[in-house]
Amino acid sequence: MSIRVLLADDHPFIRSGVESVLRDSEFEVVAAVGTGAEALAGVARLDPAVAILDVRMPEGDGLEVLQAMRGRGDERPVVLLTADLEDGVLLAALEAGVQGIVLKQGGEDHLLECLREVHAGRRWIPAELLDHAERVGEARANSPFKRLTPREAEMAWQVGKGMRNQDIAQRFELSEGAVKFALHTVFKKLGVTTRTELALLLQRYGYL
């Protein structure tokens, strides 16, 4: 009996490649979709045994889909498929309980092994990623961002993403003056003086 798999990736050639790898195996792709929204709907409708999710997709990336599934109590195995993985995404995925991570470079050599492991209830994540996550986690334990309140940390992250004070004000329903004052406090706590320095600090600790 085939093991049902849902595949979500916004690149048609990647979807075709994965389907080709699985074609003569025990795994059957019951849906191949291109957005996070379609992935969530497909998981609910088709009840696959495993979900393979691209990290970067429109309408909800792979991490957001994983977190949404876990948020509604869905613990089925999830494999993230990615060309590269930012530190923040890696840590968040591990925290959400991702069972497998396959890098697209050379992924055809490992995808079947990963799927078999996660379907059997085991985790399949490259050792180098786990080692890196441990190092990043240790660095974050001493992160200067721990000095910030949750709202200040969110504002700092928005600045790092390139958002203007006007955009941040709208997001938090504050005046631009209030945002400017809050960011002055953030900069002082972090010991930075410019938005570029803040972005570099966020990158250093794996938040961007």
Q: What is the number of helical segments per DSSP (H or I, 4+ residues)?
A: 10
What is the level-2 CATH architecture name of the largest domain? 3-Layer(aba) Sandwich
Radius of gyration: 20 Å
Succession of helices and strands:
EHEHEHEHEHHHHHH
Strand content: 5-15%
The neighbouring-strand order within the major sheet is 2-1-3-4-5
Ends distance? 43 Å
Low-confidence stretches: none
Describe the protein.
The protein is an alpha/beta fold and 208 residues long. The chain folds into 2 domains: 3-138, Rossmann fold; 144-204, Winged helix-like DNA-binding domain superfamily/Winged helix DNA-binding domain (Arc Repressor Mutant, subunit A). Helices cover 52% and strands 13% of the residues. It contains 10 helices and 5 strands, in the order E-H-E-H-E-H-E-H-E-H-H-H-H-H-H. Strands 2-1-3-4-5 form a 5-stranded parallel β-sheet, sandwiched between helices. Strand 4 (78-82), helix 4 (87-95) and strand 5 form a beta-alpha-beta unit. Helix 7 (150-160) crosses helix 9. The N and C termini lie far apart (43 Å). The mean pLDDT is 91.
